[in-house]
Amino acid sequence: MAQSDFPELRALFDKNREVVKMLKGEKNLSDKQIAFTAVYNKLGKKIAESKDKTSLTAFTTVICGRYQVCQPDSITVTWHNSETSEKLFEHTFAVGKLQREEEPSVRVIQMPSQQTGFQGLGEADVNNLVEKRLTEMRQREEYERLREENQKMQHQIAELETRNADLKHDIAAKETTESYMRILGMALPGISKFFGGAGILSMLAGTEENVQAASPALGTATAVTSEPAAEPKDEREQMIGMLRDYMTEELSQQEIATLYLLFVEIQKDKTLIQQILNQITAKDEITHTEYKNDNRAKATS
User: Fold this and answer.
1) Are the CB atoms for 126 and 89 separated by under 8 Å?
2) Is the pTM value of this prediction over 0.90?
3) Residue 77 CB neighbour total at 10 angstroms
4) pLDDT of 255-290, one tens digit each?
5) Helix (H) or strand (E) segment spanning residue 40
6) Are 82 and 32 in contact, with CB atoms under 8 Å apart?
7) How far apart are CA 9 and CA 97, in angstroms?
8) Reduced to 3 states, what is the DSSP secondary structure of residue 190?
9) Alpha-carbon gap, residue 288 to 282, rounded angstroms
10) CA 38, CA 135: separation in Å to the nearest integer?
11) Which of 96, 158, 175, 178 is most buried per CB count within 10 Å?
12) Which residues lie closer than 8 Å to 264 by C-beta, 6 or more apart?
């Protein structure tokens, strides 16, 4: 059973090829993945239907065979995805038109067609419909692409906002610490003399400044001017210089920080100086007394 035996179905077969080509291009489907069903109508009423989805390889045989039996005036063909049963496209074709056109015009006038109801669409209408469906499919794909890009951008914006909040928090904490250290330095200006002019903040942070470059050690020549250092003016300045040299050369960063805390307590109560000295002296006297007693005990024995 060939298509040439049914010239009145030529438009249906041509449109089938166009639709299949369109679905292959837009949906990336093969012939095996496309199936069809057909509904046969006459005088606006359904007279037959193929409920089972049939492969495209049997399209000509099924359509021609059912057309011979039913003699419909229109056929509605629906194309499906054979794997997912998704409805891909649907169109109604008017058939039998060629046969009526070949009849004598007199007969047409004497016997006007009494058919009523839906007679199908013309070729221009079908082309417009196919073009409309293609445009809708492209718009839907573009919408999905833009939606995915929008979701990615929203995710990136959320990550950047979180990172920005963390950075603001770190900056605020740093500014608060620096503010407190500046206040502490202004409240205790005398303490900085013991550190050779080094800032309190840099000392506690472990970034000691080059004290020798800013204030050369007493009794040594500078590397820049090679001029002899000035002698201490009095005993007080000499003792301060000895303290500074001892702290910068002998003590570790942890020991300097501990000593700084001790100075803070001394500034609150200067009587602590004498109490600390008495405590150290008393400890030395106890040690000396114990040593004497041990020697006496050994001599007696």
Assistant:
1) no
2) no
3) 20
4) 888 888 888 888 888 888 888 888 888 876 676 677
5) strand 34-42
6) yes
7) 9
8) helix
9) 10
10) 25
11) 96
12) 188, 191
